[in-house]
């Protein structure tokens, strides 16, 4: 589903010309399509049909309140990785009873807050964390519901920085140790086993690693059930990829077929933790060309969005399509599109064929809805971008552009 299209040579988000948004709120600005956000959720939800499942949107992909609010309004649950994300979900009126908490370094304070908030379950990532959760549960006079995040040792065949299911990864409990840990947990008074969890990586474009991982985890689930653990949930994590350039990730239907084929028979309710696949292609980053610059060996286009605004190219060598907001005719030349940040890695696109834009021309950095604003920083003391949500012919600012005062808000000179 794409909600970003040219109409009479002008790139639109739904029915709003992106140029109009840039004029009104300036650049750089993130723009999201409500139709895309809700559409992606509904398509995935429908793909799992009548099979018992709960979609827990992965908050870290895009944690803006307006985005969380949209998902909450559709009955989504949430996958959180910090106390801050817990607070955001509450602020957006998300359902705590549909919220799951992952991460290798939860503090006891974060656990206590989440337990008091009544989350669905904790995805525990180590033996010591399980003991800590037990202590938190006992202190509260309750049994904290948990699943172990197991590491199935499967190569997700994605970028090494976003692979999480290998033996060498910091995430999860080694697969072989899981049964013994559940047995230990049974003797604890502050926890109660409710599920099994895995998440092997992000931007998965093939079904084979998903199948391999889930086969192992479904087997474990069945084994634990047979041992009398009162499990209900099989959490399959997130990771479904999207098309940035020419990737061909499985469709939601194909993904659902793959998953359901492997897990049917377990009788488990599924938890899905999609992030990128719901929000990635629902957002763009608007940026304006500041300067063109001819170096001996290269042509540079300097734009006003930097790696502080969108770090994915610098951090993951990620590719983002760049579309001129006003369609350009002419011969493409190879350019490096770079940001203003004083780092050599602040390159939005390398050796990209583009019709050389005019100074002041606008570009939409496509597929920027996931891990864009949520990873933005103020490095180089650059206030973070504004965010806009489009719905049909209407649009509104859902986060104001930061001001200089915001840069030093908590400082004491
Ligand atoms: C990041 C993360 C997700 C979401 O991954 P996507 O690739 O954005 O779908 C899901 N679960 C866990 C535990 C994560 O850390």
Description:
This protein is an alpha/beta fold and 413 residues long. The protein folds into 2 domains: 4-32 and 280-407, Beta Barrel (Lyase, Ornithine Decarboxylase, Chain A, domain 1), CATH 2.40.37; 34-276, Alanine racemase (TIM Barrel). 28% of the residues lie in helices and 26% in strands. Strands 4, 14, 15, 16, 17, 18, 19, 20 and 21 form a 9-stranded mixed sheet that branches. An 8-stranded parallel barrel has the order 5-6-7-8-9-11-12-13, surrounded by 6 helices. Strand 20 and strand 21 form a beta hairpin. Helix 8 (208-226) packs parallel to helix 9. The longest helix has 19 residues, at 208-226. It is globular, with a radius of gyration of 22 Å. The mean pLDDT is 96. Pyridoxal-5'-phosphate binds next to helix 10.
List the helices and strands and how they pair.
Blueprint (H helix, E strand, L loop, with lengths): L3 E4 L2 E4 L2 E2 H8 L3 E5 H14 L5 E6 L6 H9 L3 E4 L2 H9 L7 E3 L6 H10 L3 E4 L2 H14 L3 E8 L21 E2 L3 H9 L4 E7 L10 H19 L6 E3 L16 H12 L5 E4 L3 H4 L3 E12 L4 E5 L8 H5 L5 E3 L7 E7 L8 E9 L6 E4 L20 E6 L2 E6 L4 H4 L6
Parallel strand pairs: 4-20, 5-6, 5-13, 6-7, 7-8, 8-9, 9-10, 9-11, 11-12, 12-13, 15-17
Antiparallel strand pairs: 1-2, 2-3, 4-14, 14-15, 14-19, 16-19, 17-18, 20-21
This protein binds pyridoxal-5'-phosphate (PLP).
